[in-house]
Amino acid sequence: MPNQTPGDQYSFLADPEVQKTTTAFTTDLQERLNFKPPVCDVFNSPATSLENDPQYEFHIHPAAKEALPNIIDNPVQRIIGIDAPKGAVPRDYKKPRKIGIVFSGGPAPGGHNVIAGLFDAMKKANPKNRLFGFILGPDGILENDIMELDKEIIDAHRNLGGFTMIKTGRTKIDNKKKMTIARENCKKMNLDAIVVVGGDDSNTNAAVLAQEFFNDGIQVIGVPKTIDGDIQVKDINGKVLCAMSFGFHTAARAFARSISNLCTDSSSDVKYWHVCKVMGRVASHLGLEVALQVHPNLCMIGEEMADYIDTERIRKANAAGTIDYTAFGMTLRHLSRVICNGIVRRAEVGKNYGVIVIPEGILEFINEIQVFIIKLNTIIADYNQTHDTDFHSDFVTLDDKLDYLRRLARFSRENPSFMVWNTRDDDLFNDIPAFFQEGLLTERDSHGNFQFSQVDTEKVVLGLVKDYLKIRQDQGRYKIGIQPEWYQKTLKKEGLDPDYYGPVLFKNYHTKDAFLLAKDSLISMKTLNQELVREKVIGKNDDIPPAVQKVFQSTVPKFKTQVHFYGYDGRGNDPTWFDCTYTYNLGLTVFSLIANNATGQLAAIKNLEKDFAEWEPIGIPIAPLMHLEERNRKLALVLERTVVDIDSPAFKVVKALREKWLAAVPGPDEYRRPGPIRFSGSSVDSKPLILTLNNLDKNKFI
Ligand code: FBP
5-42 burial string, b = 16+ CB within 10 Å, else e? Predict the structure, then answer.
């Protein structure tokens, strides 16, 4: 067009309606930013102090006592309000402070509110207090990459998901050199305290830093973050101190909402099995919560697999006077059988569709995979140690890695004392699909953890399921059940007598009201033809009537799947009311701990499982929660992760309802619609369902 400048070309963007429609500052966003989470009553006081709560007991590991002497005897501390007039707030409490905060590990909804709560409490105590964020996780501490967090940036992130304000990272400050750099940088900045918002490994790091910085007077406070829900704290008598890490509720609600939509879609076009892998590196808490929220047809819980005992195998072994070690814990093959049985049973009532929930970390609980993971962890760590280089840089392709393993297997033949990788391991490993081999050989994270999110767990399980379904189909033991009315209608439409063909086609033709099941022997048009001729229903040279062909074809299952991964999307979700309020109060708790000179404590809110009015901010000592675990081939002191307790009410409820949710009976499915994440109003979904169930009287669940 003549005489048109590039600016003119887009002049329509100045139109107020276009601007209103395209602004990123939506009404929903404004509402979120303006939301003020309620605060626990103690925080309405002008200041707070700490009170020891001696009712809790911990089993203290001697290694923790030795490594963390200055913080091992920390008590559980309750935060209480001081009703002093403003001027009478203790001087120490309101002295000017500089505090640094770092996000560590995967994002979890609510992190920004920890910062907002801390900032508001700091400013309330003394407007001169200053807050700094380390950029990109612990790397920010090591590289002195830090930014001051002022009201403007904090206000722009209130109640929003992600860790976008200061980002995050997975670096660990795990050796003397890094520790010295961290100390120097914190001192250079004159920091009074640092706050580590992280999961089990990061809070382990927080405890180590608290010990290291103890004599420097730099306090360290941890905050329980992870969507995986595996930071839950109880004392040795089972008294709950922290029922759930933050971020879990939002992620579970987000996953459940999407999976519920799949249930609706799947039961509408009735042709797909949707296989949904749900995040959670090891523990299946997210899978369990999603199951309770959605009522999928099948849901696997890793912890249950580890506990599985094959009584039939044990019986056979006893009879033979031997011990069958494979009878303990579920094998991959057995897992695929359990899934297949569900699929086959639904097919028999005409339901050739459904939804399966598989936790990301399920393979961790499968015996044979666990063995591979441990062996490969050892091999990789040994290689790195011996060669002072990196296994993954030296063996770039899968073939290179397999070749190295083969050499180890050969070595073991010549040196029987080398047992880490023998020829049997090598043969078994070579039997599994290449993508899974690759997954098992992926780089471990900086904490030495196997990265389950990098493995196509669902593909591994599905591959086996498909193979077994094919076997059952070939044996004639996987059929789609036919509605009797439809059968009658289809044959009559062609002028055929249903009762003439029925007994030849179906094994249960005369069972009243049952879905009709084709005989096992009918597995192809050819076998159908043979059967009809043998039973003299058609002549040798006759064609099978089209209506009979149509009926037969409808009994042949097509196992069509759609695979989904629910992880990063839920992790980035804007927090629910529960997580917004939880994290804001965690931020306030962090400041109370710091202002009252605590260090080596985990900020927490007790009674999360109860109504908000009963929530109680506390500090939990981190050191007594540590135990020894093998990491990178060495025993390391780490914060103990909580996995799903298969004796818990929540698990027992899922177990008891599984058969109902499978819905392998005529009639509708049992799906539950958890609805969208709402920011107001109260419902049973306002907090994790597992918290509500696990808070019920356990005696009812025996
Ligand atoms: P955190 O324990 O650090 O909170 O991370 C949990 C998690 O979201 C897991 O569920 C998942 O396996 C893992 O992070 C994915 O890690 P990455 O972000 O490095 O891919």
Answer: eeeeeeeeeeeeeeeeeeeeeeeeeeebeebebebbeb
Class (C level, CATH) for 248-472+561-570+647-701: alpha beta
CA of 105 to the centre of ligand 1 (A): 7
Category of 280 on φ-ψ map: left (φ > 0), alpha (ψ -120 to 50) or beta: left
Quick check: is 265 catalytic? no
Q: Tell whether ligand 1 has an atom less than 6 A from the beta carbon of residue 288.
A: no
581 near 612, Cβ under 8 Å? yes
Ligand 1 atom at minimum distance from 199 CA: 2
- Pairwise CA distance, residues 549 & 553, whole Å: 6
CATH topology for the 34-53+62-82+95-246+575-639 domain: Rossmann fold (3.40.50)
Residue 4 — very low, low, confident or very high, per pLDDT cuts 50/70/90?
low
Query: Over pLDDT 70: what percentage of the chain?
Result: 98
621 DSSP β-pair partners: 601
Q: How far is CA 353 from CA 296, 356, 530, in A?
A: 11, 10, 30
Question: 281 CA distance to ligand 1 centroid (A)?
Answer: 6
Is the Cβ atom of 442 under 6 angstroms away from ligand 1?
Answer: no
Burial classification of residue 526, based on how many CB atoms lie within 10 Å of its CB (0-12 exposed, 13-18 middle, 19 or more buried): exposed
Asked whether 377 lines ligand 1 (CB < 6 A), one says no
Domain ranges of the chain: 34-53+62-82+95-246+575-639, 248-472+561-570+647-701, 479-555
Nearest alpha carbon to residue 270 among 356, 350, 358: 350
Q: Is 610 helix (H, G, I), strand (E, B) or coil?
A: coil
How much distance in Å is there from the Cα of 243 to the middle of ligand 1?
20
Q: How far apart are CA 590 and CA 222, in angstroms?
A: 8
* pTM attached to this predicted model: 0.92
Nearest to 140 by CA among 80, 84, 196, 68: 196
Per-residue pLDDT of 269-306, as tens digits, reads 999 999 999 999 899 999 999 999 999 999 999 999 98
Q: Is 351 in the pocket of ligand 1 (CB under 6 A)?
A: no
- Tell the residue nearest (CA) to atom 16 of ligand 1: 106
* pLDDT computed for residue 442 by the predictor: 84
Please tell me if the CB atom of residue 227 comes closer than 6 angstroms to any atom of ligand 1.
Answer: yes
C-alpha distances (whole Å) from 190 to each of 98, 99, 185, 315 are 7, 9, 9, 68
Q: Which of 139, 200, 201, 228 is catalytic?
A: 228
Q: Which helix (H) or strand (E) holds 249?
A: helix 248-269
Q: Check if 34-53+62-82+95-246+575-639 and 248-472+561-570+647-701 are the same fold.
A: yes
Position in ligand 1 atom list of the atom nearest CA 361: 12
User: Is the CB of 199 inside a 6 Å radius of any atom of ligand 1?
Assistant: yes
